[in-house]
Design goal:
With about 1050 residues, this protein is mainly alpha-helical. It contains 45 helices and 13 strands.
Length: about 1050
């Protein structure tokens, strides 16, 4: 190519002198022939490269064979995919010469970075393409080094193995998770690579695969030791400085426990860490976690495990304060260095703020909207627009700013290969940077930079409060003795009824009982905790304000105040977020919870502190885990029964909250597996009750915190009952040395429908195989099973059992053979008994007999087969209880229940038996199941099927289902309080108000109006589906 073309390309570059110097060196042998073959476009690309980076220019001149990467259009116009790179690398690895392969890998990295930079500086690729290409290079380098290190280490030490669930030895897998910019495929030219090392399970290293589960591991290297060495070897090779250069700088500070944590962790260890100690910044960090090397299946298991943690279904407003606090700490460091306006990464309106906007909105919404999940910043911004969580104009502004700032960062780093993020103070350097960015003047560059920075900060401030809120106790009066009047005034303003008693309790909470010494530190913590407590108390308003509030509630209609679980106290501390804080998210749309009875809660709090024993340690725990304190406050307000349990066993709530168990729903099989751990306990009565107590607390807390929705809560309570029944049967079988279950245990009622509520009895039936012999020996077995659950002990009962729905009721055998059951239901059972048995479900015991009984039930409760008309052949096989007027009988039965079981004058309060109460919806479901031959023991499932199959009009069915859900939730809140079978709202105004608050309403009037509306809709649906006879 003619020299004039070279000179023209240099003159048009960002730094003509540097570009011309590069061309002059290029013209020297041995590069003369290759440079002569260059085109004007190639000259433009080379001029951009020479003017943009000294270190990359030196690499090109030192490696003339790489010139083809810069001059050939096919290498420049399109990104290189990962498969091409891996094919090249795998060719070297196949030779078995690891040292040579690693040297060639380092050269490949330098060559690829040269090619990518040429594309970037010549504006032949977008910012997104550039950061993705750099990330692909890092992926390939890490994967290659891992293969080499694994091959070396296993050859020297052996292969790690672990026992799987079936007690078989399996080779243990390992993966490298990329975090930060690497995980998000957003690396820049001089990024550290943030990684975490995870292995599958603990075990031991063997030279040969172990043959049996009993293989000795004595003296063997543990898996943890092996993977620690593997991690050390990988870090050393990736970071090693050689004549060919280093690959990348490894940063492990984002792993669990940071620099103090082990280099590699098992999957279970990671799970335990995030459940117990995971913080908000770690949620944000894990959003970008991605497998970059090693076993992708293991990485998938890791992603599944952390999914509820990094994308919680709900979080409180506290997360916004934590993120703002993190950003303030970052900015404080930048301010110290005088770079707040010039640091494009961490400074005001910088890259980190854009990332925080995207990740904050993901934290708040992506748990409920999986579409929003993703590791890459720019695609996430577009998803947020689609879900109307971010204005389209804001997304465009953030995208433009992100690309601009990343381009600036790239040009800063390409210059000398250093990790730079700050625009230099030197004017000449700034002018050069402006030209590299395509600006003709420094003023234009500064104007663009300022516009992007201001736009980012303005959008950031829409979502995250920057000013540090006051978290102190300045709102409280001073010493109790000197300012008693002010304290009592404060308590009265926060809706305490007995201010004298509450003053005494508050004083004891802060200063302790008079006979003990309380340190100043403990007093300070107590005052801070008291601020958090008072923040949950409703402020007493004037009558005029209350009247206005009631009018507002009435204006909202029947859907207002839909009962939802109350959220826990949002954390108020400004320190690093605690593990309990991460575990216990705010629900119900982020609204602040309100206590229904501050006096009772303060009294319960006093009892709990006394039961705990060590006041100072307890207050430190609550201060370190502020949401744990909020959890207890809500517990004391939402459930008297659970409050008594917590006071009796004060460590129970701490253990549940900090162990991560509140996050997990449990099936009956998982619960049964836990119960079986106590099979050798000498006192099975107490073991079963201790386990039931802990599980019941776990389920109740999940309910209170909104970690389980209404239906899931019923399913978990039912699963607990199923597991306890099966375990009780197994315990009796062990005691009696029975090899096989002698009967099936059938659940009826709410147990059969998997919709147990708090305090529900277990309606049971025991069915033996047909023609079973020695029936008299089976009766005491059933009695022992029931006693194991319901016999009174110092820990109470597990469940109250009720077998009165069996054939012949209390007069019949406790255990009946299948053939006797068939005869009874065909010939002697009444219609209500067929209605009851339509909800039968096998819950424990003899599976074959239980399945046969369910088949029998399906046959006998399919009334559709006998509806062809009087005298039809099908009716000859109908059970005796069936008549053509069976619907009328059911309607009359419902009317009788409504009349006899509803307290006189209290129909409005009788949410179960009254008109439009729960029983209306349940009778609709059962009638439709009988009429259509559906075996759907669960009421909601039956109603949903009716809606799907058109048995109920669509709009009516939808309203019926929703209103039934609402009433069941109210019933659950009632029963959760006392663990009793409450189905009637209190008629005393004070308790009724407390129930209304627990159900999410501001007043009892608004609550009753909503309940009236729900029940009116249910009664209308009932009258349509099952009219009373004329």
């Amino acid at each position: 190519m003619h020299q004039n073309a070279w000179r023209e390309a240099a003159a048009n570059s960002a730094d003509p002198l540097r570009a011309q110097a590069g061309f002059d060196q290029l013209a020297a042998a041995p590069l003369r022939e290759m440079s002569a073959a260059a085109t004007p476009e190639s000259a433009r690309v080379l001029a951009a490269l020479f003017s943009g980076s000294q270190v990359l220019s030196a690499d090109l001149l030192a490696h003339p064979e790489w010139l083809d990467e810069v001059l050939t259009p096919r290498h420049l116009l399109a990104p290189r995919n990962k498969q091409d790179l891996l094919r090249e690398v795998n060719g070297w690895l196949a030779t078995g010469n690891d040292h040579t392969a690693l040297d060639r890998l380092r050269r490949l990295k330098r060559r690829e970075m040269l090619r990518i930079a040429a594309r970037d500086l010549a504006r032949l690729a977008t910012t997104v393409e550039i950061i993705a290409e750099i990330s692909r290079v890092a992926d390939v380098c890490l994967d290659t080094v891992l293969q080499v290190c694994w091959r070396r280490l296993t050859a020297r030490l052996g292969t790690p193995y672990h026992l799987d669930a079936a007690q078989r030895w399996r080779a243990t897998s390992f993966c490298v998770l990329g975090l930060g910019k690497l995980g998000g495929q957003e690396l820049n030219y001089s990024s550290d690579v943030d990684v975490m090392f995870v292995y599958e399970a603990e075990g031991a290293v063997f030279r040969q695969p172990p043959r049996s589960a009993a293989a000795s591991t004595s003296g063997a290297l543990s898996n943890h030791q092996f993977f620690k060495r593997l991690a050390e070897a990988l870090i050393a090779e990736v970071s090693r400085a050689t004549p060919e250069g280093a690959l990348f700088r490894i940063d492990l500070r984002l792993r669990p426990e940071g620099n103090d944590g082990p280099l590699a962790r098992s999957l279970e260890s990671c799970e335990n860490y995030y459940a117990q100690w995971g913080q908000t910044w770690e949620r944000m960090m894990l959003i970008k976690a991605r497998c970059v090397a090693g076993d992708t299946t293991l990485a998938g298991e890791f992603h599944d495990m952390v999914q509820p943690f990094r994308y919680p279904r709900s979080l409180g407003e506290g997360v916004l304060r934590e993120i703002a606090a993190m950003k303030r700490r970052i900015e404080a460091e930048v301010v110290k260095s005088g770079e707040l306006e010039r640091n494009v990464k961490l400074g005001r309106g910088g890259i980190r703020e854009i990332e925080f906007i995207a990740q904050t909105l993901q934290l708040l919404h992506a748990g409920r909207q999986p579409f929003l999940q993703g590791a890459q910043t720019l695609p996430v911004l577009q998803k947020l627009v689609q879900y109307h969580l971010l204005e389209a104009a804001d997304a465009r502004a953030l995208t433009g700013a992100y690309c601009f700032l990343r381009d600036v960062e790239h040009r800063l780093q390409m210059e000398a290969g250093l990790q730079a993020h700050t625009i230099p103070e030197d004017r000449a350097a700034q002018e050069r940077l402006a030209r590299l960015m395509g600006f003709t003047s420094l003023k234009a560059f500064h104007t663009a930079h300022r516009a992007h920075r201001d736009a980012v900060r303005a959008i950031y401030e829409k979502f995250i409060q920057l000013e540090a809120p006051d978290a102190g106790d300045g709102a409280l009066p001073g010493a109790f003795k000197e300012q008693e009047a002010q304290w009592k005034e404060l308590l009265a303003a926060h809706s305490f009824r007995d201010v004298n008693h509450s003053f005494t309790l508050a004083k004891t909470f802060v200063e302790g009982p008079g006979f003990v010494h309380v340190s100043p530190r403990t007093v300070e913590l107590a005052r801070q905790l008291l601020v958090k407590f008072l923040a949950l108390c409703p402020l007493r308003t004037t009558p005029a304000a209350e009247s206005k509030g009631r009018k507002g509630e009435r204006g909202k209609g029947s859907g207002a105040g839909l009962p939802t679980p109350s959220p826990p106290l949002p954390p108020a501390s400004q320190g690093a977020p605690s593990s309990a804080e991460s575990l216990l998210p705010v629900t119900g749309g982020g609204t602040k919870p309100v206590l229904s009875d501050p006096d009772r809660v303060l009294a319960r709090l006093d009892s709990f502190v006394q039961a705990y024993g060590t006041r100072a340690m307890l207050y430190e725990l609550w201060t370190s885990h502020p949401s744990l304190f909020g959890l207890l406050i809500l517990l004391f307000d939402r459930s008297e029964f659970l409050a008594e349990t917590a006071i009796r066993v004060p460590d129970l709530v701490d253990e549940l909250a900090l162990s991560g168990r509140l996050r997990r729903s449990k099936t009956a099989a998982e619960t049964l597996a836990d119960l079986r751990h106590g099979a050798r306990d000498k006192d099975q009565l107490l073991w079963l009750r201790r386990y039931h107590q802990a599980e019941f607390m776990r389920i109740g807390l999940r309910d209170i915190l909104g970690l389980a929705d209404f239906e899931q809560n019923l399913v978990e309570l039912s699963a607990l009952a199923d597991a306890c029944l099966q375990y009780a049967l197994e315990a009796v079988m062990r005691r009696r040395r029975l090899r096989a279950a002698p009967f099936a245990i059938i659940g009826l009622g709410k147990l059969g429908g998997r919709e147990l509520n708090y305090g529900s009895d277990l309606d049971l039936m025991f069915v033996a195989p047909a023609k079973a012999k020695q029936l008299h020996q089976l009766q005491p077995v059933a009695v022992e099973v029931m006693d194991l659950l319901s016999a009174p002990t110092e820990l109470g009962v597990a469940f109250v059992t009720d077998a009165r729905l069996r054939p012949d009721g209390e007069k019949g055998l406790l255990v009946s053979p299948l053939d006797i059951c068939a005869e009874y239901y065909r010939k002697r059972a009444q219609l209500w008994e067929l209605q009851a048995v339509s909800r039968a479900r096998l819950v424990a015991g003899d599976q074959a007999t239980g399945a046969r009984f369910e088949t029998l039930v399906c046959e006998l409760t399919d009334f559709s087969q006998w509806e062809d008309g009087a005298g039809s052949p099908g009716q000859q096989h109908a059970p005796a209880a069936w008549t053509p007027d069976w619907r009328g009988q059911i309607a009359r039965m419902r009317a009788r229940i409504e009349k006899e079981r509803t307290p006189a004058g209290k129909d409005r309060l009788a949410i179960k038996t009254g008109a439009g109460g729960l029983m209306d919806a349940e009778f609709i479901a059962q009638t439709l199941c009988l009429a259509h031959g559906w075996h759907e023991p669960n009421t909601l499932a039956a109603l949903a099927r009716a809606q799907h199959e058109g048995a109920l009009p669509g709009a009516d069915a939808a309203r019926l289902i929703e209103n039934y859900r609402r009433l069941r939730r109210v019933e659950g809140i009632l029963r959760r309080w006392s663990y009793a079978g409450e189905t009637t709202l209190p008629d005393d105004p004070a308790p009724l108000h407390r129930v209304a608050v627990r159900c999410g309403f501001a007043s009892a009037d608004a609550f009753l109006q909503a309940v009236d509306a729900w029940r009116s809709d249910i009664r209308r649906a009932y009258n349509c589906a099952l009219r009373e006879p004329q």
